[in-house]
Amino acid sequence: MAVDNTNAAKALELGLATGFGAIGPGVGVGFIFGKTIEAVGRQPELRGELQGLMWLGFALTEAIVFYALAMAFVAYSIV
Amino acid sequence: MIALVSEFNPVDEFTNFVNNPYVNLPLGLDINKAVVYLWLSALLAVGGTLLVVRRGLALRPDGKQTALESVYEVAEQQIARQGLPEEGMRIWFPYVATAFVFVWAMNVVGFLPLPVSDEHIDLWGLDIPQFQIYAATANLSVTLTLTLVTIIASHVEGIRYNGVIPYFRSWVPAGTPKPMLVILVPVEVLSQFVRVISLSVRLFANLLAGHLVIAVFLGLAGLVTGSAIFYLIQPFGLAMGIAIYTLEITLIAALQAFIFATLSAIYIGGAIHPDH
After folding, report:
1. What pLDDT does residue B14 have?
2. Domain count of chain B?
3. Does pLDDT of B4 surpass 50?
4. CB B96 within 8 A of CB B250
5. Would residue B23 count as lying in a domain?
6. Is residue B227 part of a domain?
7. What does residue B271 show for φ and ψ, rounded to 5 degrees?
8. What is the C-alpha separation between B269 and B92, in angstroms, rounded?
9. Domain that holds residue B34
10. Closest Cα of chain B to A1: distance in Å?
11. Is residue A10 assigned to a domain?
12. Model-wide pTM > 0.90
């Protein structure tokens, strides 16, 4: 009996691509928050300024997951 | 109990409306769901502000005026002054602040369930449109247009303030050795194009992924099968859906608007004053 595995492969591709794409940004976001906490611990008076930079860095790093997700959807819909 | 249609594809929510718009107009200028959401967002952004300041600003501000003033202060201190030099503030602070408020309004409107869907549901004989969440910013055309305004503005301002040759020369650091230019020039030109992609896809994919995650978890909550294990999954799906919805509408909606406006300010400011 011939089994069509296309949908299974597509589902796997979507999960794997997004999951692997999330590893790096996950580490990066952790670094950003950790380093900000460290910096605020050293110089509490810079808290406001550092928080602005933190959110900027957070969003820039987090966006990489969504590039992976977008590419995964492209691959998902092409086949 | 309302049974779900068996073919549930969350992606359809974000693509189908292009093929069946509300009003067909020539040149592809159809009025579809994204356009309606754009109007609603503009109405919220302009109308909400006008409602507060319609009787002029009081010297002793009340609650609403204080909230509006804090939004203005964030737009000026945290967003515009991050990137724009003093001489660019007069023209580009209004643009950057408008982008912030407009994108924020689009994101927030995108998380309100509105009955603007073209799909209808039959509830006790009544034909009511489905309540759906959809954001204008979860549409690449909208975010790409906003991005192109920023990018074109940055190049125009760069040329206006520095002149054509000095502006394009400022893309590579001064004093670079000649052989290095072979590598550096393509990289810098490429990075200008990557800006277009990163600025637009970041906003678009953030909102799209946020809506999809909510749709998937709430879809789990509505899953009806014969298997008993799904009764364990349903409360989990509902709880996760509500948790992510709360995170998205409070934090992500404002944060992505903030990022978009800040990067716009940095790109425009960087073109006006290339050396820092």
Report:
1. 67
2. 1
3. no
4. no
5. yes
6. yes
7. -80, -35
8. 9
9. 12-272
10. 25
11. yes
12. no
Cα dihedral value A7, A67, B217, A8, nearest 10: 10
Interface test with B, best of A53, A61, A62, A66 (most B CBs within 10 A): A66
B-contacting residues of A 11-40, CB under 8 Å?
A: none
Is residue B7 a part of any domain in this protein? no
Alpha-carbon span B199 to B201, nearest angstrom:
6
Instruction: State the complex-level ipTM.
Output: 0.76
* Degrees, nearest 5: CA angle B178-B184-B190: 150
The answer to whether residue A1 sits within a structural domain is no
What distance in Å separates the CA atoms of residue B260 and residue B203, rounded to the nearest whole number?
Answer: 7
Question: CB-based contact (8 Å) between B247 and chain A?
Answer: no
Do A52 and B202 lie within an 8 Å CB cutoff? no
CB-nearest to B255 from A59, A70, A77 is: A59
Beta carbons of B205 and A70 less than 8 Å apart: yes
CATH number, domain with residue A56: 1.20.20.10
In a domain, B89, yes or no: yes
- Beta-bridge partners for B123: B126
Q: Are B88 and B268 in contact (CB under 8 A)?
A: yes
pLDDT digits (tens, 9 = 90+) for A24-67: 999 999 999 999 999 999 999 988 888 888 888 888 888 888 88
Cβ B270 vs Cβ B112: under 8 Å: no
**Any A CB within 8 A of B137 CB:** no
Task: Tell me how many domains chain A contains.
Answer: 1
Distance CA B206, CA B138 (A): 8
Interface of B with A in 172-211 (CB under 8 A): 198, 201-202, 205-206, 208-209
User: CA–CA separation, A48 vs B143, rounded Å?
Assistant: 29
Q: Interior CA angle at B208 toward A35 and B80, to 5°?
A: 50
Chain A residues inside the 8 Å CB shell of B262: 56
User: Tokens 């006006």 label which residue?
Assistant: B272
**Would the CB atoms of B255 and A63 count as touching at under 8 Å?**
no
Which structural domain range is residue A20 located in? 6-78
Cβ within 8 Å, pair B201-A66: yes
